[in-house]
Amino acid sequence: MRLKKPILITLLLVCACLVGQVFAAPTDPAALELLPLVGLAVAPFDIQTRLTQIAMAVKPEGFIADRVLPRVQVPGQKFAYTKLTTEEAYRIPDTRVGRTSEPNTVEFGGADVTETTEDHGLDDPVPNQDIRAAAGTNFDPQAVAAERTAMLVELAREQRVAALLTTLTTYASTLRATLSGTDQWSDFVNSDPVGAILDAFDAMLMRPNVAILGPTVWTKLRRHPKVVEAIVGTGAQQGVASKQAVAELLELDELQVGLGFYTASKKGQTAAYTRLWGKHAAFLRIDRNVRNTQGGLPTFGMTAEWGTRIAGTIEEPKRGLEGATTVRVGEHVKEIVTFQDVGYFFQNAVA
Fold first, then answer.
1. pTM of the predicted model, to two decimals?
2. Using an 8 Å Cβ cutoff, are 193 and 185 in contact?
3. Which residue in 37, 38, 125, 261 is a FRET match for 251, CA 20 to 30 A apart?
4. How far apart are the C-alpha atoms of 308 and 345, rounded to whole Å?
5. What are phi and psi of 120, to 5 degrees?
6. Nearest one of 275, 274, 296 to 285, comparing CA atoms
7. Domains of the chain, with CATH numbers?
8. pLDDT tens digit string along 81-134?
């Protein structure tokens, strides 16, 4: 049977309205009732301010990623940044200008590199029966899930930054050293960490303002007789130096010690913990006034961030007997190195 044209048009309009309602307001009960009619399964991610604030407030003790590669906002997921080149940045132009001539023209050195922020996130399903059981109490299962999940997102970021900044090839070939034997700062008799560090600074184009040390490196460095003597004076050979004292000795703004650790063992196995920052030391020039990825003074690196960290929920009716609400936490970031020549790396600084 062929439908008359007016009836056919009416049916098409009705279908369009039904589909529009489903996509426009998928959490509306009336719209959800229409799902079987159109054969759709909609599970929207509902970003919630409350959970987002909880996720953004998570700053684990001893995590230093945001201090050593500070976040810089980018306008979109795809962005461009300037990777500086040494010779162009420091070639001196002729600045003399004749009485009627034009000044010389300069072009700031560097290569524009196109990158894309990466999506990093985790889910934690919370059974609806747990949410119902917590009603009227001070316990909020979704808030706890957001906090714990944000902690793991932070741990993953700390690992990425630590891996980047403790890799030899991240640094210029003339600005890295692998220590061994009597040169390692754990040898209190033969090594001279202060001399090695200051000589490294002289090899850099700009003096660093941030030191990054693994916890074992810091423990040895602050007790090293030559460090203690340089700070205390009068022939002192024993003692423990503070972060502030060592930073002042080396003329640094900050001395950061990465205390984060992780376990690579699988569930059911005995946990074996590893320090993220290892037994290494890095000294970087970090410009905290950089506001975009294509300008500012030379800085070793930064983190491009699109938007902010987000957290929200997804309804999961098929999970568990009574369904579940999945809490998701994530962010769009990309860690980048913009100028190798303002960083120095000591691999295996201690044994």
1. 0.81
2. yes
3. 261
4. 31
5. -125, 125
6. 296
7. 1-42 (no CATH), 44-347 (3.90.1690.10)
8. 888 766 665 677 778 888 887 887 666 556 788 999 999 999 999 999 999 999
